[in-house]
Amino acid sequence: MTAGNQTRVAIVGATGYAGTELIRLLHDHPAVRITFLGSASQDGHALGDVFHHFDAETSALRLQRFSVDEHADVADIFFMAMDNGQAQRIAPALLERGRRIIDLSADFRLKNPDNYDTWYHFKHAVPELLKRAVYGLPEIYGEEIPGADLVANPGCYTTTAILALAPALNGGFVESKGIIVDALSGVSGAGRSKTQVAYLYSELNDNAKAYGVPNHRHSPEIEQELTTAAGEQVTLTFTPHLIPMTRGILATSYASLKTPVTPQDITAHYESFYANAPFVRVCPPSRFPSIQEVRGTNMCIIGLTVDHHTNRLIVVSATDNLIKGAAGQAVQNLNLMIGMPETTNLPRTALYP
Description:
Blueprint: E1 2-3, E2 6-12, H1 17-26, E3 32-38, H2 47-50, H3 56-59, E4 63-64, H4 68-71, E5 77-80, H5 87-96, E6 100-103, H6 114-120, E7 134-135, H7 138-141, E8 150-152, H8 156-170, E9 179-185, H9 201-204, E10 209-210, H10 219-230, E11 236-242, E12 249-256, H11 263-273, E13 280-282, E14 300-307, E15 312-319, H12 323-337
Parallel strand pairs: 2-3, 2-5, 3-4, 5-6, 6-8, 7-8, 9-11, 13-14
Antiparallel strand pairs: 1-2, 9-12, 10-11, 12-15, 14-15
């Protein structure tokens, strides 16, 4: 199933932002060989005809329109970096052929198929696969991912919010109702194909806007995973904001404390919770991360404090939406699936300035 000692990987949806980041992170991965790049819009072109930031060897790779019948045997693991609704139509045939899948869309993240009707406005094509899929957040599901054949890679907002709140809920520090998550995102989170007026430079520059209020489609996913962490139903209000920045997520989360606690004590709990998580760093009490500290990395940096006046825990978390929020996390999952150290070929030091 491997070429020499290398796992063959295919990237379907290779010309989107997540797809190109996957190519960048995988082209010199010591245990991986890219054997297929899928693109419907650039079928037949060399990668270097479309993008000019790759080395000569990588630029020579050809982009092809993906077909299960023609390409199911070209790789051992398939990265699906396509729009929501597409991977679910391809996955069954690949799984039947013994292939493994890391899906970067939302197609297998939600366990309740009815949520796809409500939040994504389509009927799920293969609801029986939802239970089979492993949620690809290694800090929480690291023991399940290595044996998975279908990994649902979380998105940027969900990763940043879940990592911020899971330790507090799991440890019983905060109430499970009335949680608030406010998040800021760079424009690349919307994807490379956006052509609406709202994403024009003249609309975004010197501007900031909330959207998806109060029913953003990532809300049920965050609630689902935090409910698992808490052991009881979690409800929250999630409000995302678009800001004039290329990449990055900064989330500020608020939760009511069950009993009084010091910032030092709850910081110590977070440090213990993430003691074996190489891509999570917990700041000292009352120091908070910035987006610049995670830009270009697979890190999630978390800072927290206690507002004694309102009896609330405040958690600030930062990620790079294209790496820890997409391609980097997918590579982290790949590393676990093929028995490599999960840090292999993933950056932990930010670009600065």
